[in-house]
Amino acid sequence: MAARFVGEKRWRGFEQRQQPPRSTLIALVLASATLMVLDQQTGDSSPLEPVRSVVGEAFAPVEAVTSTAVRPFTAVPTWFRSKSDLRREISDLEAENASLRATVATSAFDANTLAEFESLTAAASDLGRALVPARVIGHGAAQSFSRTVTIDAGSSAGLAPDMTVVNSDGLVGRVLRVTPNTATVLLILDPESVVGGRIGESMEVGFLKGHGILGREGRLDLELLDQKLVPAKGDTVVTWGSDGAGPYVPGIPVGQVSDVFASVREQSHRAVIVPFVNFSALDVVGVVVAADTTSDRALVRADGKIG
Amino acid sequence: MNALRALVGLVAVVVALGLQTSLFPHLAWNGVVPNLVLLVVVAAALTRGPQFAVLLGFTAGVLMDLVPPADHLAGRWALALVVVAWIAGRMRSETRPSVPMVVATVAASSFVGTSVFALTGLLLRDPAIGVTEMLGVIAVALVWDLVLTPVVLPLMMRLFDGIPERGAERVRI
Question: Are residues A123 and A225 in the same domain?
Fold first, then answer.
């Protein structure tokens, strides 16, 4: 009994029974509502955009430090692999190494940096576009019902909103907003994301929409403009955009048709696309920029060279 | 309002938010991560009551709304966390809260928090998401928050409880 009493005494929750702060509650609820309405009504010219930029810039070191500390551990799942898997990978890597060594020998660039961004340089020369290399340092929670990530390059690296973000596998998303040293990227998986897509085999165009947030892996829905057309399983989809006009540059690989569903009611077909990019393991990405961009870091040039 | 307590609360929120955006996405189930910021606010509410908790909840919510890669309307998490702080603060009892009480409070807070956020999204048509999918996310988030409760809540409650009131002597055993 005595022990219980001491325990209760140590708990200093109710030293003075405070009046429930109803006025504070109402004030804060109204403040939240004001923020929401302000942000919604003003749209892109929202007075909160500069605040977002300042907060993002201030918070970037926290995200950068955490993700740097975490990065060695994200490789842990790859330790649990079978021997034959690893053998195959070794032979693949040896072949890749040999070709890369040839590249390194011809380039004056520091070999370490090249190794880090090797896949990106390959992507740049495949796509024929200049890329600003960047790393993903923060992921948005699905509780916020959107799929966004933060990268560690911003306006001082030459980034601007609506630029296309890719990695070595394909299209990642587009830049939503930038601060001097970070940028927020809307992934193509986001339910609000719409990408113009073109089926590589038939050159038919349509719209790719994010499938939503849950589901075992990221999926995209493709709706073709020509509703009579049925996409074939295994067809590849690339972006259908135009340089300078839209957020997505054309010809970036997006994914492959995995399933086709017929919608009887709408007399059209809905194709499910498996993206080439593994969104759960995003790390090094590249932002497509104009070749003459001035940047605080080395650009990956369209010919795969760095400088 | 003790300045030291406010500072500790703010630091705890920043650390929680950092872990939430950069560490837990690697462990996330379909992108749903434990809402550590919400757990910090609940801990503050259970130890310090609603007055302190609503203020901390509002600050933490605004941070969650503005820190990249957030892309929703600002104020939505702020509202959700103010409501959570209020409810959790009302659950505070005269004695040290028992384990089932803390777990029940976290569960209720997580459900209410994510739901309020989702509902404001529906009202404002912010992201157009199906209700079933929302319920799925809310359920997974609830499980995540409960899993992290034994680690985060005792730590945070001890932290908030350890800062003495102004002018009040710490009672020693």
Answer: no
Both A107 and A211 in one domain: the answer is no
> Is B88 within 8 Å of chain A by CB?
no
Q: For chain A, say whether B25 makes contact (Cβ under 8 Å).
A: yes
Residue A49 contacts B, CB cutoff 8 Å? no
Angle between helices B3-22 and A48-74 (to 10 degrees): 60
* Number of CB pairs, chain A paired with chain B, less than 8 A apart: 233
Q: Residue A247's domain is classified under what CATH number?
A: 2.40.10.350
> What's the ipTM?
0.76
Q: Verify whether the Cβ–Cβ distance B62 to A35 is below 8 Å.
A: yes
Q: State the Cα–Cα distance between residues A20 and A14, nearest whole angstrom.
A: 12
Give yes or no for residue A266 having a pLDDT over 80: no
CA distance A167 to A111: 20
Q: Which residue of B has its CA nearest to A215?
A: B30
Segment A204-258, tens digit of pLDDT: 888 888 876 655 567 888 888 777 777 788 888 888 876 666 678 888 888 888 8
Label residue B167 by pLDDT band (50, 70, 90).
very low
Closest Cα in chain A, distance from residue B128 (Å): 7
Residue B95 corresponds to which tokens in the numbers above?
Answer: 């004695």
By Cβ distance, the residue of A6, A143, A182 closest to B173 is A6
Q: Range of A198's domain?
A: 194-278
Alpha helices in B74-165 (DSSP H): 76-90, 99-124, 131-162
Within this chain, do residues A138 and A242 fall inside the same structural domain, yes or no?
Answer: no
Whether residue A214 is found in the same domain as residue A150 = no
Q: Measured between CA atoms, how close is A211 to chain B, in angstroms?
A: 10
Roughly how many angstroms between the first and final C-alpha of chain A, as a whole number? 75
Query: How many residues belong to chain B?
Result: 173
Judgement on whether residues A234 and A158 belong to the same structural domain of the protein: no
The structure tokens listed for A99 are 């070709």
Write down the pLDDT at residue A106: 53
Residue A283 has pLDDT above 90, yes or no: no
Q: What are phi and psi of B157, to 5 degrees?
A: -70, -40
Cβ B42 vs Cβ B88: under 8 Å: yes
CB contact under 8 A, B120 and A36: yes
A119 occurs within a structural domain = yes
**Domain match, A120 and A225 both:** no
